[in-house]
Write a structure and sequence with these properties.
Elements lengths: L1 H5 L9 E5 L30 H17 L4 E7 L8 H15 L4 E8 L6 H10 L1 E6 L4 H5 L11 H12 L7 E7 L6 H9 L5 E5 L20 H14 L7 E2 H10 L16 E4 L4 E3 L13 E5 L12 H5 L9 H4 L4 H4 L21 H18 L1
Helix pairs in contact: 2-3, 3-4, 8-13, 9-13
The structure holds iron/sulfur cluster (SF4).
Iron/sulfur cluster (SF4) binds next to helix 11, helix 12 and helix 13.
Length: 383
């Protein structure tokens, strides 16, 4: 850190806060990084965020925003399953958050939910408090239920579909922000995409399943000639790109297009833009991006808590710095790569290899090479 500071580097303040309002889930999805991967810290945490921790979290967000003169912050309610915290707790948190920051700091409030507990009373509170809602869904019933199941093994699709029907209905639709789909390359890509479009989502985020070099994602073999994720995504890209009208936004595709044209990425999955996201766990622990849980036990730890420490101290953490310094944190292979400025080495946790840390190309390197190369080539040809 001293060397970085000495070279003139200054950390950028956090602008996005993921607040884990409830640490347990009513589903037991088999790919979940919270419960099924290396980090098992959830089992020792408070189940639900207490009013005192909520208050401390809000105080720290307000303190950080004012200290750095931020015009806006993005606060995402997350879990586990955030709706298990109950509507009144969620309502109180967002009301207090807005009171503490607005009007001088704009609050963009959102929630990532599995959708099962969406009901009229929550949607009324979400409308009142302006909470945007994103729902996780992996495609058609059979495809979704292969992974997204209750602990007893029953599929979740039916319950999620009920929640999405309600969220998508006329009075509530403005709250709908989009769908999050974790890729299973065994599902048909076009059928998956068209199934997601059935809900008319304003946006779809396709998520590469979390994995590392030490614990590779499904079907991601050491064979650099094999590109199952790029092949899957490119079928959807062509369907999306050549549609007569823009049916939905896909941040991954749009980010590659924007960066090909000199713009910025909209997702931390690719690009070299500094990571400015911080997580607060139910017990007030301050952590880094929670997908790091896929790397090793304790990977997201900062050793800080909202009760005792300002967020500025997290800016001093070496891994936070590594995710803010762009090219300087990349492996030699990534630094020399012609796609470096668009790919950025891929999502930080996907670079991890036991014994070597994070200074490696992404475990998805062959897929990213093919995906970005194809999209960038397509855009260049068209412009
Ligand atoms: S992960 Fe692969 S494609 Fe991405 S920058 Fe590194 S070498 Fe290039």
């Amino acid at each position: 850190m001293d060397a970085l500071r000495g070279a003139g580097w200054q950390p950028l303040p956090f602008t996005q806060f993921v607040v884990k309002i409830h640490s347990r889930c009513n589903l037991a999805c088999d790919y979940c990084y919270m419960y099924e991967m290396a980090d098992q810290s959830w089992s020792s945490r408070d189940k639900v965020m207490t009013p005192a921790t909520m208050k401390a979290t809000i105080r720290r967000i307000a303190e950080h925003a004012r200290a750095h003169g931020l015009p806006a912050v993005n606060v995402i309610l997350h879990g586990g399953e955030p709706l298990l915290a109950g509507t009144s707790r969620i309502d109180r948190f967002v009301a207090d958050l807005r009171n503490a920051l607005e009007p001088d700091v704009r609050v963009e409030a959102g929630m990532q939910t599995n959708g099962i507990l969406i009901d009229e009373s929550f949607l009324a509170a979400a409308a009142e408090r302006r909470i945007g809602i994103s729902v996780s869904l992996d495609g058609a019933e059979e495809d979704n239920d292969r992974h997204r199941r209750y602990a007893g093994g029953r599929g979740s699709y039916e319950a999620v579909a009920r929640g999405l029907d309600l969220l998508g209905s006329a009075p509530h639709r403005p709250l709908f922000r989009g769908l999050l789909c974790t890729i299973d390359v065994d599902n048909d890509p076009i059928a998956t995409y068209e199934e997601l479009l059935r809900w008319e989502p304003p946006a779809v985020d396709f998520l590469l399943p979390h994995g590392t070099w030490s614990s590779p994602p499904p079907r991601r073999t050491a064979d650099a000639g094999s590109t199952p994720y790029a092949d899957w995504l490119l079928e959807i890209f062509e369907r999306w790109y050549t549609a007569p009208r823009r049916e939905t936004r896909v941040r991954l595709f749009e980010s590659v297009i924007r960066m090909t044209l000199g713009g910025r990425s909209m997702t931390e999955a690719i690009g070299l833009q500094p990571a400015r996201l911080l997580v607060v766990e139910t017990d007030g622990t301050i952590e880094q991006v929670d997908s790091l849980k896929a790397a090793f036990d304790g990977a997201p730890d900062t050793g800080l808590t909202v009760r005792e420490h300002p967020f500025d101290l997290a800016l001093e953490h070496p891994s936070v710095a590594a995710r803010q310094i762009g090219v300087d944190a990349l492996s030699e292979q990534c630094t020399a790569c012609s796609l470096r400025d668009i790919c950025g080495g891929g999502l930080y946790p996907h670079r991890y290899r036991e014994g070597y840390g994070f200074r490696n190309p992404s475990v998805y390197c062959p897929d990213l090479t093919k995906l970005i190369g194809h999209i960038a080539g397509r855009v260049r040809a068209d412009t």
